[in-house]
Backbone:
């Protein structure tokens, strides 16, 4: 079967590659070359620590440098993620608080569903951290899922552009698969049987669109205000409370009605608490 | 399940990355870095058109440059392939005479069989051509199979080190799969989001045991009592409220600390509501 035409790429154009605090222009150039070979076009730069459009960047981009010029820029990851329905953070680290962690392969399988689930104008972000120190704990805590590229135990030093290449490749695999190009993923017969069985078991259409990242952030802020008002949460002694609520709510992939219900519950509790002094 | 230890790598050490006529030392450096992250160690250089061990190569290798120093060198591809039982040539081109052509995914599946089939000292070669012109027809004709990395129709310009990265990644996937690490390829239970979430939580060492079914039921009962007391929930007009909370909390696979936190929040709200008449 012929692969789908590249101009059928509204699917791929919903995926953003988000580079946080990149230091080396050459890596930005390598990243956009990697993106363009796989049909991705949306670059987001968060607080870059270099000029991302130098001669070195253009040389490494090798004909893809218009993606750097067209890149959106933000000062914080928070702003960059506002309209995203699924946020995947690339992480090499085991964090203090464990987070759902998937492989690039599983990312590819899940991406197909996420594109179908999100509102037609919602975005999917794949977030890459700094060359030297990756993503901060706070940045990782804004992701629905973390993905770990399985590297050698003794040498895990994956170049930033190489990591983008692998994730862009797995994104394209998902798109080819979604477009009916089953050879792209080359499932063996045995695995096809599994897949067929699973498919016959479900594939439900969800009843509400996913909540946006910004909606979930507003819900978490509301939670914090309300829990302070009730006295349950003491910001002086936070005991990981908000971090744990954050992990729970991001993991659950709230839909828009669920965020409305939880906001409604919080508002009804607010009416019971004494008015804030501030 | 734990990934196999890297010292169990006689499997991976049978795979050679063969670079033919490479022009840029930086690409040799990028290639060995890509190889080493995926546990590959055997580099073969055929008639390089540059000094492969310059300061640029060492910089791009980022700690993997010993693979360049240990590389075997040959004047012709013919000599380089003498002891190989399976030769895979990376090709961007459609040739005059069609050749068996596979995707990187199919390569990964087939690699597992080929390693098992070949004599224990036989080698497998993945051959990459020149940056500007790829492999010649004569060189392509020495391969058992060609592999084509599916790139965009409008921009197929994959960097040499990026191509090595993708094929090294697919080689490692095959090894992980052969070693019984099925999560590496994650081809089963696709479409099954609940299983995927559960697996993504098991993939890392979670910090708390999962809540029991009974714990979650007690939490839901507590939710219902509290929401009736606050006036948010009217059992005469339930509007699917409890059904939606149930779906959310079951989907999230709560751990025991999360159920305790939510019970604690509900108890703190209970203190604000008038005592029940019953």
Residues:
């Amino acid at each position: 079967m012929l692969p789908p035409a590249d101009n059928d790429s509204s699917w791929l154009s919903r995926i953003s590659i988000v580079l946080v605090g990149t230091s080396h222009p050459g890596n930005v150039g390598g990243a956009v070359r990697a993106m363009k070979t796989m049909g991705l076009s949306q670059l987001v730069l968060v607080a870059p620590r270099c000029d991302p459009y130098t001669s070195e960047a253009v040389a490494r981009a090798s004909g893809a440098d218009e993606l750097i010029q067209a890149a959106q820029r933000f000062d914080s990851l928070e702003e960059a993620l506002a309209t995203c329905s699924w946020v995947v953070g690339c992480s090499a680290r085991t964090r203090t608080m464990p987070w759902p962690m998937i492989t690039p392969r599983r990312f590819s399988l899940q991406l197909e569903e996420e594109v179908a689930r999100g509102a037609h104008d919602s975005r999917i972000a794949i977030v890459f951290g700094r060359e030297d120190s990756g993503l901060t704990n706070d940045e990782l805590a804004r992701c629905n899922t973390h993905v770990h590229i399985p590297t050698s135990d003794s040498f895990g030093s994956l170049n930033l552009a190489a990591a983008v290449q692998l994730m862009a490749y797995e994104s394209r695999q998902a798109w080819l698969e979604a477009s009916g190009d089953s050879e792209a993923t080359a499932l063996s017969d045995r695995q096809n049987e599994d897949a067929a069985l699973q498919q016959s078991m479900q594939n439900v259409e969800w009843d509400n669109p996913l909540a946006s990242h910004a909606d979930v952030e507003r819900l978490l802020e509301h939670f914090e205000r309300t829990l302070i008002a009730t006295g349950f949460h003491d910001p002086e002694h936070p005991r990981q409370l908000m971090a744990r609520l954050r992990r729970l709510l991001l993991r659950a992939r709230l839909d828009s009605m669920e965020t409305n219900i939880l906001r409604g519950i919080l508002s009804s509790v607010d009416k019971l608490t004494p008015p804030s002094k501030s």
Notes: The longest helix of chain B spans residues 160-178. The beta strands of chain B are 15-20, 42-46, 72-74, 84-90, 101-102, 123-128, 145-147. Chain B touches chain A through 80 residues (CB under 8 Å).
